[in-house]
Amino acid sequence: ICYAVDNHVRPYNFREFDIFFGAHSWGAGMDKPNAVWMPCAYDPTWHYEYEVDHLDGRAVDVCMIGSLYQNRMAAINTLMFNGFSVTVGCGQVYYDSNELYNSAKMALCTSICGDVACRVFENMAQGCVVLSDPLRDAEKLGLVDGEHYLVYHNEKELLEIAGKVKDDNLMRNRILTNA
Q1: φ, ψ for residue 149, nearest 5 deg
Q2: Is the dihedral of CA 103, 127, 62, 40 positive or negative?
Q3: Average per-residue pLDDT in the chain?
Q4: Which H helix or E strand runs over 117?
Q5: Smallest Cα–Cα separation from 88: which of 56, 112, 110?
Q6: To the nearest 10°, the Cα dihedral for 84, 41, 52, 102?
Q7: 2-4, strands of its sheet edge to edge
Q8: DSSP 119
């Protein structure tokens, strides 16, 4: 049995498996007869919202923890150079990650290739409005842009959307209630 959480970037062709669970419906291995789509999720033991007012009690505008690929660094730099407070990290997990995201109003979930990563669900559970580039499986998972998370297509849109979320408590509350 294989759970291929990275089938969006790895081929998983080094051996045959009796059952192949792929995290991304369009990823490698999903054309096999024994393939089953099993999307990413989150664990409420490690990813939850503190009892903090998510409208006014978060000191940081945006948080992004993960591998700092070029497209993520470009988005982070765009936000930072335009006055947003941004927490950036790589390697923080469990309580450390949860604490950092619980201090932020928004989570930057820039994908590497349109994948709905675990962090999308983790950050929603942590009370962050998720900002993301377009995600290929979002619709299949029932995630709607503007209702559950916010999609940007370029740096200009990222700044516009982040600015609205930062300044509009009602918008943040509406999205967090839906997420």
Answers
A1: -160, 175
A2: positive
A3: 94
A4: none
A5: 110
A6: -40
A7: 2-4, 20-22, 35-37
A8: H
Answering whether pTM is above 0.85, one says: yes
Choose among 139, 136, 130: nearest CA to 114.
136
Phi-psi region of 127 (alpha: psi -120 to 50; beta: other; left: phi over 0): left
Nearest by Cα to 89 from 112, 108, 105, 113: 108
Q: Of 11, 33, 8, 30, which Cα lies nearest the Cα of 21?
A: 30
**Which residue carries 């923890």 as its tokens?**
65
Q: Which amino acid is at 43?
A: D
Radius of gyration of the chain (CA): 17
What mean pLDDT do residues 40-65 have? 86
CA 108-112-114 angle, 5° bins: 85
Residue 56 has pLDDT above 70, yes or no: no
The residue behind tokens 């580039």 is: 133
* pLDDT at 119 exceeding the cut of 70: yes
What tens digit of pLDDT does each residue of 2-27 get?
999 999 999 988 888 999 999 999 99
Tokens of 161: 């959307």
